[in-house]
Amino acid sequence: MIAVIALAVCLGAIVWIARGSMGDNLVYYWSPADLEAQGERAFGTPVRLGGQIEPGSIDWRPETQDLYFVVTDGGAKVKVHSKGTPPQMFSEAQGVVVEGTIDAGGVFESTNLMVKHGNEYRAPAPGEEPQQVYRSLVQEDGP
Amino acid sequence: MRHAVMVGTGVVGLVLLALGHGLGLFWAPTDKMMGDVQRMMYAHVPTAWTALVAYLISFVACVGYLFFGDWTWDLVAEAAAEVGLVFNGLLLATGMIWGRPTWGVYWTWDPRLTTAGVLFLLYGGYLALRRFVDDPERRASLAAVVGILAFADAPIVYFSVRWWRGLHQIQSTPKTVDPEMVLCLRLSAFAMLFLMVHFVLRRVQIGRARLDRELAPPPAAAAGWGGPR
């Protein structure tokens, strides 16, 4: 009897969560569209923002260690500012998750930058050199 | 026979581990995005699979104990949970080591990481509970119920990367990974599977010896003395 109850609770919990009943309580990051939808309410509130880096938007200034780029989900776009050298995997080819706050000017001040990696693992094409993450901790000229 | 299985799983596991990790470190191609850091995969991914399989064994044994009441179910449930916890710990550790150079952080409260961390705590709790109950039958029943409930998190860990958006990527498949890497990954996975079975068998042996001592009548009573002096 107790076994049946325990199994029922176990299964029930899995089904409950699988059906998405946790709702918005389990959102790891907002997309640029989510952030935009919040409007002014988002100003100054610490959030995580995730998406793709807009191609051609990366602006790295080594002399001041300032990094600017645009995060997009295909539609909405958010300009992000980050201080310091980003993780070495940081590039247009990867997704990104940043922690920080958006200011009234619409610029997202990142306090923590994380690079999202896909599920693909490939050997470099013949003649191509593999990127060596963290062989050199400080990059000479950034991304 | 039992001895042969014990030695066999250990030897096969070690040989496969040497092969899988050896080839993974020195023969498999370097990943073009991550470089040599990607070789963490051969250690990290199999620990996840192995931990989940061990917890599944424990779950089945918990159900078996409640339905059939045989001590062996309880011993297997405990052994598999303990071995699963070791692989779960290795999973978290290797994940952190891999996460820092690639993501940029050791830890973040991503759904996959969080649920895997919770799984570690749940089974730590399961094992702690066992130490708190002295009566073997009470302990076995209580632990079996907790073991069944704790397992609810295991499928959630697996599906977390598909159900919620997070930092952790979804499962790779042989289509998204080069064949040489897949081979090393498979060898390493079977290595850890064999080692896991080996550890569980050994742990059951230890558990049985302890249980026999617990269930044996106290020597004083058996000898007809007036109890311990």
Mean pLDDT reading of chain B: 92
H/E topology pattern of chain A: HHEEEEEE
CATH class call of chain B: Mainly Alpha
Mean pLDDT of chain A: 84
**What does the main sheet of chain B amount to?**
none
User: Beta-strand percentage of chain B?
Assistant: under 5%
CATH topology type of chain B: Four Helix Bundle (Hemerythrin (Met), subunit A)
User: Helical element count of chain A?
Assistant: 2
Biggest sheet of chain A: strands, sense, closure?
5 strands, mixed, barrel
Q: Can you say what the CATH homologous superfamily of the domain at 26-116 in chain A is?
A: Nucleic acid-binding proteins
CATH architecture of chain B: Up-down Bundle
The 3D shape of chain B can be described as globular
Oligomer: heterodimer
CATH architecture of the domain at 26-116 in chain A: Beta Barrel
Shape of chain A: flat
Largest interface: A-B, 46 and 48 residues
The rounded Rg of chain A comes to 20 Å
Helical segment tally of chain B? 8
Could you characterize the architecture of this molecule?
The complex is a heterodimer of chains A (143) and B (229). In chain A, 17% of the residues lie in helices and 29% in strands. With 143 residues, chain A is an alpha+beta fold. Chain A has a domain at 26-116: OB fold (Dihydrolipoamide Acetyltransferase, E2P) (Beta Barrel). Chain A has a 5-stranded mixed beta barrel with strand order 1-3-4-6-5. With 229 residues, chain B is mainly alpha-helical. Chain B has a single domain (12-208), classed as Up-down Bundle (Four Helix Bundle (Hemerythrin (Met), subunit A)). The model of chain B has no long low-confidence stretch (mean pLDDT 92). Chain B has helices at residues 2-26, 41-68, 71-102, 111-132, 136-151, 153-163, 179-215, 219-223. Chain B is globular and about 70 Å long. Chains A and B meet through helix 1 and strand 6 of A and helix 2, helix 5 and helix 6 of B.
